[in-house]
Amino acid sequence: MTGRELLRDAALPGAVALLGAFELSSLGPDGWGYGIVLECVACLLLVWRRRYPLTACTAAAVAVLTMPWIGPQLDEPATPILVAALVAYSLARRLPDLRGLLGMGVIALMLLVDYGLVDGRDHGPSDVIFVAALFAPPYVLGRLTRKLAAQATQLRLQHALIRDEAMRAERARIARELHDVIAHSVSAMVVQTAAAQDLVRTDPDRAGAVLEDVAAIGRHALSETGRLLHVIRDDADELGLRPAPGMAMLSELVARFRDSGLDIDFELDGPLRELPAGLDVSAYRIVQEALTNALKYAADRATSLRLTSTPTTLQIRTSNVSGDPGSVGGSGLGLVGMAERVSLFGGTLSHGVTVDGRFELDAVLPVMTGEL
């Protein structure tokens, strides 16, 4: 146990001990000094309630219940009630099973001995109800708190697993799409190399031009291959037989979402230049996911989409009313996928809800020069 943890666990029992000492010294009953010592012993034992819950809490309760034998009666000070509540709560909260009931049984036995041998008052069913009302609520609260804490931990673990799986799946899909691009490049290289072989004797100049194209395609394929490190293809029964989508299909994508009921204010700032194949696929997927989020979460089923194309960057920006997925029960996994795609190309992604309640997403992708 670290010093900070020890200080944290000692704070509440220390406060109870100070309160008990002040109470007994103010009341001044017979044997009040012994009462202060016993309360302090009980609170000292409760410092270890997290590490040794059954032993420490039971011993703390026994220490307080010994008070009528050498100090004031239990009906005089009120601080022992606080100790009893903390004991009952800790027995339920800190033990994973029902062993805390053993400690509660020892406490009940000690109370029975106190009432029978030390306390000279008449006792009846009301005393049983009083003791039950004293110990049962904090014990039940402790069990409920433990169950809720366990459920919260399990939910956090499940959410982390889901996010990790989503990241792996997104990387796999990126790998498949880039694989299709590379396969196309290699096929083109094979065809053009064969053509150059036929031309090398009859038309050397033309053969040289063809080989320059082959070299350019090869450089592009190597660039794309570098982005496939540590990713694998998914096994979601998608064989990659369809051609990879790209920004040339953007108008069709926007039209499809409009047909689905999403009002899109689309603006293209600057001519959309031809992009490297891998970047072209990822830019399309980012727009697709952004529009999907807007379709799901936009309060008025409307969004603005603005693309800004420069010689060195492609910026994708969307904005819609009250569209934060995290605020309406979304998992945020679509944002995870977009972040993976953006980071793969060394870009930046920012998103969040503005002060006027609009969810804005801004992705900036660098356009690598020297690629086809």
Question: What order do the helices and strands come in, and which of them pair?
Answer:
Blueprint: H1 3-27, H2 32-46, H3 53-65, H4 67-70, H5 79-93, H6 100-118, H7 125-199, H8 204-225, H9 250-259, E1 263-269, H10 277-297, E2 302-309, E3 313-321, H11 333-344, E4 348-353, E5 358-366
Parallel strand pairs: 1-2
Antiparallel strand pairs: 2-3, 3-5, 4-5
Helix pairs in contact: 1-2, 1-5, 2-3, 2-5, 3-5, 3-6, 5-7, 7-8, 7-10, 7-11, 9-10, 10-11
Query: Given the C-alpha coordinates, what overall shape results?
Result: elongated
Strands, total number = 5
Number of H/I helices: 11
Into which percentage range does the β-strand content fall? 5-15%
Whole-Å distance between the termini?
60 Å
Share in helix? 55-70%
One letter per element, helices H and strands E, the order comes to: HHHHHHHHHEHEEHEE
In spatial order, strands of the major sheet run 1-2-3-5-4
Broad structural category: alpha+beta
Mean pLDDT: 80
Characterise this structure.
By secondary structure, the chain is α+β, with helices and mostly antiparallel strands. The protein has eleven helices and five strands, in the order H-H-H-H-H-H-H-H-H-E-H-E-E-H-E-E. It has helices at 3-27, 32-46, 53-65, 67-70, 79-93, 100-118, 125-199, 204-225, 250-259, 277-297, 333-344, and strands spanning 263-269, 302-309, 313-321, 348-353, 358-366. Strands 1-2-3-5-4 form a five-stranded mixed β-sheet, covered by helices on one side. The two termini are 60 Å apart.
